[in-house]
Write a structure and sequence with these properties.
- The chain has a 6-stranded parallel β-sheet, sandwiched between helices. Strands 1-7 form a two-stranded antiparallel ribbon.
- By secondary structure, the chain is of the alpha/beta class.
- The chain contains 12 helices and 8 strands.
Length: 361
C-alpha cells in the first residue's frame, strides 16, 4: 500500500500546448470535466516516450473519462482501449480484447475465453482492428488481477513496446486510492511503469486558470467538432519531438548530478534493496523529453529535480521493519527507529536526498 502524494508535473515549466485554450475549455465544459494540466502533461510525455504510466485516482471511472477525453477528443487517437479488470480476469481475456480492438469492455472469464495460455511471450501475435500503429490501453482494476496475469502482461507489453511498427504503444493502469492508500501492482509490472501520476477526480467542472479562459456565458450549446486535431497530426508532433529529444545533450555536470542523487537514494537509511540501475536511463529520458517539449536545447537542474520527484518514489522500497534499518549496526537505538520509521515515505526520502545533493552551478 502506498500513500498518495501529488507532485505538480508542470512545475515551473510551461507546457507548449498546441491546442487553443478556449476550445479546450469548451470541450471540458461539455463533458463536465475540469482540465488537469498535470495529467495532460503526464499523458503527453508517456505517448512521446512510448512508456507506461500509472495514474493514482480518487475515482478511477472519472479519471478514465478525463483521460479518454484528452486522448480521443483532443489528440484524435482512435484506438484507445479501455479494459475493466476484476479478480477473475485472465491474461487471455486482456489479449483478446486488444486483438479485437474493443474500445470499452470488461475483461472477465465469463465474457471471453477463460483458458489459461501458457504460450511463451514471443508466440503472442498482436493484431488489432485495422492493424493500427497506435495503441493506447487504459486499465481499470488491473491491481485486482492475479500476480501471474500481471507478469504475463509485462512480458507481452515489453515485446510490443519495442515493435518498430508501433508509433504509439502505451498502457495506463488507473489505481483507485481509498483513504489515501492504494493497492500496489506486482513488483515486476511496476518496473515497466515509468512514473506514477496522481489525479484528483472531480465531477464538477472548473475552467482552466488562464487569462485567456472563457466565461460560462460564452459557451455555445452546440457541440464542438471532435477531435481538436486528427491522429496523423498528433503522430507527426510526436515524431518531431522524438527527433528533437535525440539532439539534446546532457552536460557532464548534469549527468553527475543525476548520478549523485541515485547514489544518495540507494544509500539512504530508510531505503531497502537500493535502486535499479536502469533508473538512470529513465531519468535521462524524462529530462530530455521534458526539454524537447518546452523548447530547451539543454538540461537544467530543476528538470532533474522534477524527474526525481516523479520517477524515484515508485522505484524505492522502504525499510519494512526497524530491525532492518542500516544504522543499527553503528549503535542506533532501535526504539527511536521504531518511532521514526512510520513517519517516512518515498516522497520524503526523495526530498531528503535532493536537499542533501548539491546541484551544479
Amino acid at each position: 500500500m502506498k500513500k498518495e502524494s501529488r507532485v505538480p508535473l508542470v512545475h515551473t515549466y510551461i507546457m507548449k500546448i498546441d491546442f487553443d485554450v478556449k476550445r479546450l475549455s469548451l470541450v471540458s465544459s461539455e463533458l463536465g470535466l475540469a482540465f488537469d494540466e498535470d495529467l495532460f502533461m503526464a499523458l503527453w510525455l508517456s505517448l512521446i516516450a512510448k512508456r507506461n504510466i500509472l495514474v493514482a485516482s480518487s475515482n478511477a471511472q472519472l479519471s478514465a473519462k478525463e483521460i479518454k477525453y484528452i486522448i480521443r477528443d483532443v489528440w484524435g487517437i482512435r484506438n484507445l482501449l479501455v479494459i475493466n479488470c476484476n479478480p477473475s480476469t485472465a491474461f487471455t481475456d486482456i489479449r483478446e480484447i486488444i486483438k479485437l480492438g474493443v474500445t470499452d469492455t470488461t475483461a472477465a472469464t465469463n465474457d471471453l475465453s477463460s483458458e489459461i495460455d501458457e504460450s511463451p511471450p514471443e508466440a503472442y501475435d498482436l493484431k488489432t482492428a485495422s492493424d493500427t500503429a497506435s495503441i493506447v490501453v487504459l486499465f481499470i482494476g488491473l491491481e485486482l488481477t492475479t500476480r501471474k496475469v500481471q507478469q504475463q502482461l509485462l512480458e507481452f507489453i515489453e515485446k510490443e513496446r519495442i515493435n518498430p511498427g508501433r508509433e504509439l504503444f502505451t498502457l495506463i493502469p488507473i489505481i483507485e486510492s481509498k483513504k489515501s492508500l492504494e493497492i500496489d501492482l506486482d513488483t515486476f509490472l511496476l518496473d515497466a511503469i515509468w512514473f506514477r501520476q496522481t489525479h484528483t477526480a472531480n465531477s464538477s467542472y472548473s475552467f482552466i486558470e488562464n487569462s485567456n479562459s472563457i466565461s460560462s456565458s460564452e459557451i455555445s450549446p452546440v457541440r464542438t467538432n471532435f477531435p481538436l486535431q486528427n491522429e496523423t497530426e498528433t503522430i507527426n508532433q510526436i515524431k518531431r519531438l522524438r527527433i528533437l529529444k535525440e539532439k539534446i545533450n546532457i552536460d557532464p555536470d548534469i549527468s553527475r548530478y543525476i548520478y549523485d542523487i541515485m547514489i544518495f537514494a540507494r544509500m539512504h537509511r530508510m531505503v531497502s534493496g537500493g535502486l535499479p540501475t536502469y533508473i538512470r536511463r529513465d531519468l535521462e529520458a524524462f529530462v530530455t523529453y521534458l526539454a524537447a517539449i518546452n523548447d530547451y536545447q539543454y538540461i537544467i537542474p530543476k528538470m532533474v529535480v522534477l524527474a526525481c520527484q516523479k520517477l524515484l518514489p515508485l522505484k524505492l522500497r522502504l525499510v519494512p521493519v526497524a530491525e532492518e534499518e542500516l544504522t543499527l549496526m553503528y549503535g542506533s537505538d532501535i526504539r527511536l527507529i521504531r518511532e521514526v520509521l512510520p513517519k517516512w515515505n518515498a516522497d520524503l526520502i526523495v526530498k531528503d536526498v535532493i536537499d542533501n545533493v548539491q546541484p551544479p552551478i
